[in-house]
Design goal:
heterodimer, A: mainly alpha, B: mainly beta, 6-stranded antiparallel sheet, 5 helices
Amino acid sequence: MKQQEIGILIKLAKDGDRSAFGKLYEAYAQQLYRFALYTLKNTYDAEDAVQNAAIAAFRKIKSLKNNDSFKSWFFKILYNECMKIAGEKSRRYEILTEDISIYEAFAPHKDTDDDAMSLLSSLSEKEKAVVILTVLEEYSSKEAARILGMTPGSVRSMLSRSLAKLRKNTEGDKNE
Amino acid sequence: MNKETNELELIREKLNADIALPKSLSRESIETLIENELPEKKPARGMVRRFVASAVAACLVITAVSAGFQLSRGGNNVEVEDVQQSVSDDVYTLSDYDELLGVINAYKSEYLSYWGENRYYYTADDKAEEGSIIFEPSLNGGVAAGGAVSSDQSFGQINLREENVLEADIFITDGEYLYCVDGYGRGISVIKPEKDGTLTAVYTEYEPLLTDQRGSQTTISSGLYKYENYLISVFTRYAYDENYKADIFTGAKIYDVTDKSAPVVVREFLVDGNYVSSRIVDGKLILISRYEISSYFYTDDDTYFIPASYNGSERVLVPCDCIVYKGDTSPEAYVNVASVNLGAVSEDMSVASYLGRAGETYCTEDALYVIGYEYEAHSGNFGFATAVMIGSGKAVITRLDITSSPVRVTAECTLEGTLLNSYSIDEHEGLLRVALNSQEGNSIVVLDESLTQVGKLSGIAPGEQIKSARFMGDTAYLVTFVQTDPLFVIDLKNPQKPEILGEVKLPGFSEYLHPVGDGLLLGVGVGGTETGTDGTAKISLFDVSVPASPEELDNIILPGASLSSEPKSFCQVDENSFLIIYDNWELLDESEENGEYKCHFFSGCLMISVDDGAISCEHSYLVKGDEPVVRATFIGDKIYVLAHGSAGVASFDMTDEQIIDVWCRDGENGLLSLTRDKNEILFGTAW
């Protein structure tokens, strides 16, 4: 989508046009879902995070100052939602039903290449976010820092440590 | 670089898998969701908005782990700003200052009616009595030993708790100069040691002790950092009013020392409260202070109920969304955690605060753990005063994410028992391990990132006190003591079930444990017999390579002496050699003039070597003085020691152990050559 078109859609969305917002969302939906899925490791939480983020983004779009930052702004909202969900995950879940689909929903995503999930398995949620934003989405450390609320230096050193862990993971696989 | 680029390409390729977007996240579904969504309040997660075909949402019950505190959420959603991330609403912020002041004022009324005007109590975190200043070289808190030392290290490094997490100390070197805090925290000096070991102070400043402090201020340094071209002093400042009441601030003074003889103050940062600790991580200076507001309960001014930093003389309140109050603690004090970007010191510091207490701190590259204690108070009336007897305490551990700016409180937990020092807590592979002292039986608790308990081993050596702890990878080493010293080896490979693998019982106990490679641990502490301590100091070499049967391979006993267990006083010279601070003392005759006893210290450091399963005292560098030596370091083939107070700095030749020079602030010889035979001091019978 061209930047000019994005600008027009943002203006319409700021005026409450849901369809315009829907088009904007659609342009990044795949990337947003992939980010959430890698970070949270299951479809149930990832869908929740993306839905929450979309609602929050539509609600807050009037506060977006710079149209060029729309994507990173959306990612920042999504990241916060992922962290909230990750924090809530540490609470205990009591499952009161034997509905098997619940367990399936909590199982790791089956459509994803297993390699990707196991590659990231040794990283914390924050470390995954850093790797996904800088390596996959190719944000600079400065842009990733804005999204994640870190300093660029922290992003760079966290990336370096994460890559060292991934390297160790990969070497471990080779040695098996 | 090519290898790194290829590596990134491989990772990118693996992560770039095509992932099918679920139907619930299609554009149409999202648009419908937004149509239906109520704008004010989000529905509870997972209850309404899913479009998947299962009955998940209706059948799940999510139970919050209470973790010992009430939830008192302030706002609804976290407002995400373009510029900075606000405090997560997983931990609880108040909506505005009025709400915060309402809580504190309500507590203040209760407090004043309970304690009255005459109160007399201590809390475990009080390090200074009101109105007096106490300087202790060990105020910086326990520091973990550093990792492997490169064989080509040419000068002493601070014994760091965590690699890449710098800590301040009172005696540091950059290999060219020595930087020290002397004069009980009042003096800062830059000393140039020449190649022959002679000492020249190229810069020195000193805060004089005033006979009348009213209307004045005093700054007491707790330590220094040498960071790039900056010398940074972290301090507590006391500003006295006409009634000797002091407002207390924590600060960092940043000097540009491009010219060591003429440091230029670039900036000074101040935040409310007493200095607790600090770190430098990833180019950020983190300052931790403890701000007691209960002393302001006796005034009518509630301005000071909200913590603040200072921009010159302007008091800048900590933003309300950066203040956390969990509702489970008496709102008498704040912990302030301030962050300064050392790459841009013209930027203001950012501060986050929480209502609570701070004693020990432990810091990794990502997280700061602050340990405070909550006590049950019991009171009794003694006529004019209400005295408080403090019962057994609970350790409150607060975790903060220090990668964000401002830092963020992310989790908290309360544990039964107390921590000996910051060696008793350790983060490893996402889990936090804590060793807790308790009369009922010491314990090791394992917690996850949200500080929820994962596993626990309790009832370790009931009735004995933990004297030292050390976590290394999947193993914990604990020394407990009442009459003899069991060293326990505890396996943490299964975090749900820590278990004791082996122990060795010995006379005396180690107060500091340091790994020396190849399954060996050096223990520095106190000697003893089967029935208790015997006034000797002891260095032990433990073989812990077989966890089920640890053993003491060798030891050195030093009669009548003490060895410093302050981790920062331990200096690694090379892979097998270490400097350990030693002191012994001689009581002089009672003075005829004033009836006081005086003593002289014979102190300095020992060079201890570990070789082939044995330890030896290779060299000793001792001086005689009015104060004991508290730190030692080296540059090249010279040893340098710092004595307490204003006694000074001495230099020695590393090989022949001869004292070369002494620098002392007031010009008098605070440190002198020995008058006794060294071997008699070290190994002779008690005097």
